[in-house]
Design brief:
- The chain is of the alpha+beta class.
- Helix content is 19%, strand content 30%.
- The protein contains 6 helices and 14 strands.
- It has helices at 6-14, 17-29, 92-95, 114-132, 167-177, 182-185, and strands at 40-48, 57-59, 72-82, 97-100, 138-148, 162-163, 190-198, 208-211, 221-227, 232-238, 246-248, 257-264, 281-283, 297-306.
- The chain has a 5-stranded mixed beta sheet, with helices on one face.
- The radius of gyration is 19 Å and the shape is globular.
- Bound molecules: N-oxalylglycine and fe (iii) ion.
- Residues 162, 164, 281 line the site of fe (iii) ion.
- Fe (iii) ion binds next to loops.
- One of its GO terms (molecular function) is oxidoreductase activity.
- Belongs to the asaB hydroxylase/desaturase family.
- This is 7alpha-cephem-methoxylase P8 chain related protein.
């Protein structure tokens, strides 16, 4: 394990003797196409509040003085369960994540040109949402992020447990993108949902972990100021709590989509069947992934979803 990345080393260090032997076996003896599957233990990186009790913030753009954020983080070893084969047990209303599979190939082939992605891929995502998100009758897609694992990629997988938006920032998004209709739209149900897919699946390295919304307490959600050069958004860090139940979908394929719900206005209503409507998520390094595995490439599309 001497050449392993620090995360691998930490993860392996805390595993039992036999699990460690297995992990090393996977690294050495499996062919490079090996895809880790099944329940396991991984290291996830969680939020640590600022020492001085001040409100947490981070800057989106790289800062010249290197001061990027005022909060810390810590690694923790956690069990994670593979939902492959029982994807249908999970739903947006209960878990704030949901899987769709068997999607046809996209009209977008390259995923390099933003205009082309908007023209070809966005309409497919809009239809997918209308077909799969119960009650939805209108979708407004506001952006997307492409992630590639190579060191020069503008955006890489995120190895930090987070939720992209809070009630405050989701509501601000509606005002920002649909100013004329916002007041009316905000009286009905509004959700903010990311639609995630790999571009070079099946995913071997840096898979995505997500914790069921039903296992997350409101008090463990910590708003973080998300400072752009011209405005401030809000994301959420997660306080660790051993009740949080983590999952992943092993070897996620190009014909599969993962809905990651960040906010659902329905979750705040008394007597609701919606259990929180927000899913903590993060990329992780699976200690069983071979060292020469293919780096993950993915796209997530972010949408405001309206409907009763
Ligand atoms: C997301 C997200 C991280 C990743 O889709 O919201 O945080 O590594 N993705 O793909
Ligand atoms: Fe995210």
């Amino acid at each position: 394990m001497t050449t392993a990345a620090p995360q691998y080393a930490t993860a392996a260090h805390n595993l039992s003797q036999s699990a460690r032997a297995e992990a090393e076996y996977a690294n050495v003896a499996q062919p490079s196409t090996f895809i880790p599957r099944g329940d396991t233990i991984v290291t996830l990186n969680y939020f640590r509040p600022p020492e001085d009790g001040s409100a947490p913030y981070n800057y989106v753009e790289k800062q010249a003085d290197g001061h990027q954020r005022n909060f810390g983080d810590f690694d923790i070893q956690l069990p994670i369960r593979d939902i492959r084969g029982r994807e249908n047990e999970f739903s947006l209303d209960k878990d704030a994540f949901q899987v769709a599979s068997g999607l046809p190939e996209s009209a977008e082939k390259d995923f390099v040109d933003d205009a082309s992605i908007k023209e070809k891929y966005y309409p497919e995502v809009e239809k997918l949402i209308l077909d799969n998100v119960e009650g939805s009758n209108r979708v407004f897609i506001f952006d997307h992020t492409i992630r590639r694992s190579n060191p020069n990629a503008p955006r890489a997988p995120v190895t930090r447990v987070h939720i992209d938006q809070t009630k405050k920032s989701a509501t601000a998004r509606v005002h920002h993108h649909l100013p004329d209709e916002a007041e009316k739209l905000l009286q009905g149900r509004y959700r903010l949902i990311n639609v995630w897919r790999p571009l070079n699946g099946p995913v071997q390295g840096s898979p995505l972990a997500f914790a069921s919304s039903s296992s997350l307490k409101d008090e463990d959600l910590i708003p973080i100021e998300h400072r752009y050069p011209d405005r401030t958004g809000e994301t959420a860090g997660i306080r660790y709590n051993e009740g949080q139940k983590w999952h992943y979908l092993s070897g996620m394929r190009n014909d599969e989509r993962l809905f990651l719900e960040c906010f659902d206005s329905e979750a705040t209503k008394p007597g609701t069947k919606v259990l929180g409507g927000r899913v903590p998520h993060t990329a992780f390094q699976d200690p069983r992934t071979p060292k020469n595995a293919v780096g993950r490439e993915s796209i997530e599309v972010r949408a405001l979803v309206f409907g009763p």
